[in-house]
Amino acid sequence: MIRSLSGRPAARNFHSFVINEIGMGVASGDFPVGSTLPGDAEMSDRYSVSRTVLREAVKTLEAKGLVEARAKVGTRVLPHNRWNLFDRQVLFWIFHAAPTPGFAASLNMVRRGLEVQAAGLAARHRQADQMRMIRYWQSQQRLSATMAENYGLATFEIHRLMAEASQNPILRAATGLSEFAIAAVLRHQIAIGVQDFAQGKAALYDNLVTALDRAEPQAAAAAIASILDYDEQTTAAAV
Description:
Blueprint: H1 14-28, H2 40-47, H3 51-63, E1 67-70, E2 74-77, H4 88-96, H5 101-125, H6 128-143, H7 148-165, H8 169-173, H9 175-191, H10 202-213, H11 217-238
Antiparallel strand pairs: 1-2
Helix pairs in contact: 1-3, 1-4, 4-9, 5-7, 5-10, 5-11, 6-7, 6-10, 7-9, 9-11, 10-11
């Protein structure tokens, strides 16, 4: 998501191209919930791929909870509550289809619960090599403060390493939510002409890194909460 701030990346092959096109169509509502996708012949012509490639793409989308294929019925778009919202690709499609305010609020609520826990656990369990990498990415934040994608990637790495240091595999698996929120903040800042993406947040990350380094769980939890407050306020204006 962060890498796509300057434009959607090109698909690597026909299979990923078809998955992305249909996934974006579902997320954007071009293929509405409850509707049936056009038949294989029409879809193959639309995307200039074989039926084999198309069917493999549909299987991938089924695994992500977006569609359901039934013999003699067709491929139906499933309700939002069936979508795998922890899947990075699904989040990518929602991000580019413009998420609703309700979705952003729900994501922020879950993200807060996860990241506050991750920060406290990371302060207890972080290793020296993890702190070294966190400090490295913090320095990259400062160096790339005027470059949205680079700044965003450095910021995400801090959050990813914090989740890794928590030693909780569920928290590590949920970092796509953090990437979505970081990308949403940056997209809004780009839209309103922000030049320094670190402004207003550098001190907050200083507090977080210091608390992690000193093994202070409560201070780390408070520091990440302040960062999330900032992101939520910005995201609220972004959608």
